Every structure is written in structure tokens, then in C-alpha cells.
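Q: C-alpha cells for this one, please.
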Amino acid sequence: MTESIADRLAAAGVTVPDAAAPAANYVSFVRFGSILQTSGQLPMEGGKVAVTGKLGGGVSLEDGQRAARLCAINILAQAKAALGDLETIGRLLKLTVFVASAPEFTEQHKVANGASDFLAEILGERGRHARSAVGVPALPMDAAVEIEAMFEIA
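A: Here is the predicted structure, written as C-alpha cells:
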């Protein structure tokens, strides 16, 4: 018998928070047939952005990876709100990771690993995904990272 997503979350010491409400004129997720697309999630923790600033401009790689992990936790919160049960996830198809970066910073892929590694751990084989990691000059609320996800629904 395989471990459930809830079991893996508990083993990792992670509690999925309530899904954040949209901050502007958009919806937090869209379900279309067997596809679930989340809006970009910020590294929110305790109701505020936990990691702000730019990678290569004061934010360490480790803090960037922590921000990406927090974004991934918030993606799971949106998936749970959309689906009711995370076990309904068939597969994580793709992550798009936006990293607020100083011009000389070129390790966006390493920042994105904070989310990719966490989701692979929690979702198991269902968590293996395609990915883009993109450096951008700024993100909403000075967040260091923002991530959107696309899932196949089982």
C-alpha cells in the first residue's frame, strides 16, 4: 500500500493552509475538463509574504528555495480548494517559476528546485513535472518567487 499525500505531508511536518483569496480581479484557479490551472502563488506564510527582495540582490539561494517551497505549499492549498481532496490529483504537469532576480543572477533553476523537490516528495511519481524557471525584475508585493501550476485531474 502506498502512502497518501496526507501521510507524506504529515511526515514532512507540513500543514496545508487555507487557500488565499485572489488579490485582484482574477480567480485563484480554473478547472477545465481534466485540467486544473492555478494562478501564481506567492511565498505566503502566516498571512504575509515571507521572503521578499531579489535573488542575487540580498536574497540568498537558500531563502529563494524556501520561498519556492512556500509557493508550492500554497499551490497545494489552491488544488485542495479546487478539488476537495489532493488524492484527486492525477499528475502535476507543469510549474512556471518566476524568480525576482538581480541582472547578474542566473540560478533561477536552483531556486525552482525548492518547489520541484518538495512537490516530488509529497506527490510521489505524480509530482514529476515539466518546468520553466524565469528571472524577472520584480514580482507583486516584492515577493522573491511566484509559481503557477497545471495539474491533470484523475
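A few notes: DSSP finds three helices and seven strands in the chain. The chain has one domain: 5-11+30-153.
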